[in-house]
């Protein structure tokens, strides 16, 4: 099955280079040169991935991302020269899955594209009702009974540790800021007390990771937050 990608890039030279290379890699590319055209294309057919430049004419990349996230969970890979825009899209809950900064190599871009598509097909969880058991690598969690096992051995997690792990397993493509984690797990307003989250995250990693100092299951994105690891 051919993977369809919506490429949203206003720079013709970059767009043509990316389209040509990814086409040779076996992907089907639809190229939109501004946010307005991108929304039109997105509404006309399904896509497996969106490659999104943030600095766009007519409708910005951020506004495009907000609009499609109202009813779509398609993976979005940001391509941007502005770190601040990337930080916003990843950290403020707008639903971007990954990013690559300009200038970039086509080899790196292709690797990021393939990883994003792989994640989207690997973690398939029904939206209406969570799967009874969600598994990633050697770790599995029964969502009904809230039990966690690793290599078939049950792990003893506290209530907060279970809620933390459940949050990541049910949102495998999402990057969470500490504020979002606190709001979701503690169900309270966040006042910048990072120590509470740091302590619980450290204890959770001690129980689920082979090497807590080099975590595989829950990755840290420095300056942004956390996300589920890739396997």
UniProtKB/TrEMBL annotation:
Response regulatory domain segment(s): 4-117
Name of the protein described by the UniProt record: DNA-binding response regulator
Gene Ontology biological process terms, A to Z: regulation of DNA-templated transcription
Post-translational modification 4-aspartylphosphate, affected residues: 53
Key word Transcription regulation present: yes
Subcellular location: Cytoplasm
Key words of the record: DNA-binding, Phosphoprotein, Transcription, Transcription regulation, Two-component regulatory system
SMART domains: REC, Trans_reg_C
GO cellular component: cytosol; protein-DNA complex
Keyword Transmembrane annotated: no
Gene Ontology terms for molecular function: phosphorelay response regulator activity; transcription cis-regulatory region binding
Domain OmpR/PhoB-type: 131-230
DNA-binding region positions on the chain: 131-230
